[in-house]
Amino acid sequence: MRQAINGDLTELPLLEELPLLEELPLLELGINTNLTTLTVNEQASNAKVTDVYFAEKKITYKRTTNVVGVKNYSFKNNNTITDKNNIARIIQTNTVEELKKKNQYTTVAEIEKGILKNKYAAGETIDFDVFELEEVLSYPRINEVAIEQDVYLVVNTLNLSGTTVLIKIYEKADELTILTATDEILPVLVYPTVTHTETQTETQTEATLGIEVLITDEEQGIKKIKFRPKAENKTTTTEPAVRSLQGWKEALENSVKKSAFYWWEITYNGEEGEENIQYKDNYLTLINSQELWYPLRVIPQNHPQNYKNNNYVGYNYTAAAGSNVTTFRAFRSNGTRLHAARDLYVQADVNVPTNNPSVHAITDGTVLGMYPFYLDTWVIDVEHDYEYVKGHKMMVRYGEVCSPGRSGIQLQKGQRVKRGEKLGYVGILISRGTPFRQPRPDVRGMLHIEFYTGGNEPIDGRFRRNNGLFDGLELLEKMLDTSIKNGDIIQNQ
After folding, report:
1. Pair 195, 249 in one domain
2. 302 and 346 in one domain?
3. Based on the domain organization, do 430 and 445 belong to the same domain?
4. Which one, 143, 276, 381, 396, has least CB within 10 Å?
């Protein structure tokens, strides 16, 4: 696919192969920070655990002024420079993703310094400085956890560096859902280190006696765990729920509240070796899995529940694959290319993009990129904390959205997004200054949405996409039903 920007044709990249990251999404857990010391030796009174909480791993990027190299940019077409600033912005857009992969960035001002002539022929180059993007790692606390998801247990301490703290999680006596006795410890799987993933050869161990967390010189310990037991299935119908993943799921499914409440026991040795115990009363919201929410807050005008008029019937995006231009596998480019998405038509405003329907994350996830897409629109790639195929995180491409400059929403690679979070606004295809009309005479926007398993399942080469692509219609219909039931959908625009 090629895109024309002020005469400078840019090759749009195919979707990169997604790496096999951690097998399951991050968990969330909210915890009260008030700790009560029940047994503390007088000589060790200054040594204590100050906070314990669950968190997700978050990577952000901070711009620095450190020059780390020079970018050599080649013009693909002949260019007459009448507006240096505009050309510099186009070049910045064309290079932003390439530089991000190297933890680098540049500015419009630096690119302008490299534009030294009024005309550049195709193939001619310019040079400009690039700067370092500093990676910033943090572990913000979170408030909900789904079975089988990964989470980071964070322990902050005072005067306990080099000590191992033992964390035990119990279920409250009046809220027993998974456990059958108040003195049972909730078993979870523990990774060898915070950097290990399930694609590596090291296996997780089941912590049946508690979670050991080593405190560093920085007075903090972090352990990566997964909320599930080791066994997959029950061996008998009467086996206690706590012993298997199947048992956990059935217990939560049968629970009225669909959540369980827990309290901590925190054990460590004081200055003289005496055992010290702190207790902490708190709750954990535990769910079977995260619901997927519809990416729009309106029912599209080409959905059978909300046709704008009869002209939209032939553009029904829920129709069989390949049956009309909005469907998955529809022909493009005289049959040489296949459509990789479902196109959701909505009413849109050419002049005020923020009046257009907003686009929202279907569930929690990590932004993989945001970049120019097709005819004055942009695309957002998000790797979601959801497994369509077990062992891989699903990737969704939210296409034909407004540019950051028009929507006011700029997403960064590595940025975490929450289910329902606004990602942007539906865009309008504009060719040579003229809005695209389909069906005529309407000017309308659409969300072009693609789904990828995160795996490497082969696809028809005519899609011109990477492996793992699949038709997301079934998921979209379930999402729409869920969002209507939740009251998140406006029936008509």
Report:
1. yes
2. yes
3. yes
4. 143
